[in-house]
Amino acid sequence: MKQIITAIVDDDTLVTKLLESYLNNQENIVVDFTAENGNELLVKLQESVKLPDVVLLDLKMKEMDGTEITRILKSEYPCIKIMVMSSHYQKTFLDFMIKSGVAAFIPKGISPTLLIKAIETVYKNGVYFLDDQITNIKEEINNEEELTILEDDKLLTEREKEILRLISMQKTAKEIGEILTITPRTVEGHKNNIFIKTGTKNIAGLVIYAIQHHIVTTEELPLI
User: Fold this and answer.
1) Contact (CB, 8 A) for 32 and 52
2) What is the per-residue pLDDT for 109?
3) pLDDT value at position 152?
4) Rounded to whole angstroms, what are the CA distances from 192 to 164, 167, 203?
């Protein structure tokens, strides 16, 4: 795996420095820059020669909080994968991930080993769930009144279901192509159609949809 270029956005200087030092000591991760708020992040992105692959973003900041900067990043820098770090993720992460398009929602108290795994998984596959989040997903799915994914008005084809299942199983377009003997471009075409048919906007939404519609089970997901 090539080096994953990251950026850290947090107004807690101690947290930022510790994270930067730890990540820069990893063989496959490098911190390109840090920022104390969304405004500073946008300035540094404009100055960057190469955009970061992943941004670690705090939600609560004094200037332009994580919710607002997420909206801007998804609009102006859609190639950047956003990982939100917060102490208040348990009750709100599912709706927030689906509606905002963030790739992961993790607590600041996450273990260093899991943090590295989360960054690598997000970089490779576009989404990462913690084990307790998987439990919350099950609870959401069991309560139909709380479901936030749109019901499909167009049935997925068997090939699209097959591809959706493999996406949920953390397979890349290249790996799916090899398994199904089709080109990665064809896989991407099917994935775009799946987004349209399911009404989802990101990988997190696709995974939830796949579980919700019994295309894959939570026990099958290699996400924790």
Assistant:
1) yes
2) 84
3) 46
4) 11, 12, 11
Between the alpha carbon of residue 202 and those of residues 58, 125, 179, 187, 198, the distances in Å are: 20, 11, 23, 16, 11
Going by their DSSP bridges, the two strands 81-85 and 29-35 should be labelled as unpaired
- According to CATH, what is the number of the domain 4-128? 3.40.50.2300
DSSP string, 128-156: ---HHHHHHHHHHHH-GGG--SPPPSSPP
- Note whether 87 and 155 are within 8 A (CB): no
- Contact between 10 and 55 under an 8 Å Cβ cutoff? The reply is no
Show the low-confidence residues of the chain (pLDDT under 50).
Answer: 145-153, 223-224
pLDDT for 149: 46
Q: pLDDT value at position 71?
A: 87
What pLDDT shows up at residue 212?
78
Q: Give the domain ranges of the chain.
A: 4-128, 136-213
Q: Do the domains 136-213 and 4-128 match in fold? A: no
The secondary structure element, H or E, covering residue 85 is strand 81-85
Interior angle at CA 200, CA 197 and CA 202, nearest 5: 130
| Separation CA 93–CA 87 (nearest Å) | 11
Q: Round to whole Å and give the CA distance between 214 and 156.
A: 13
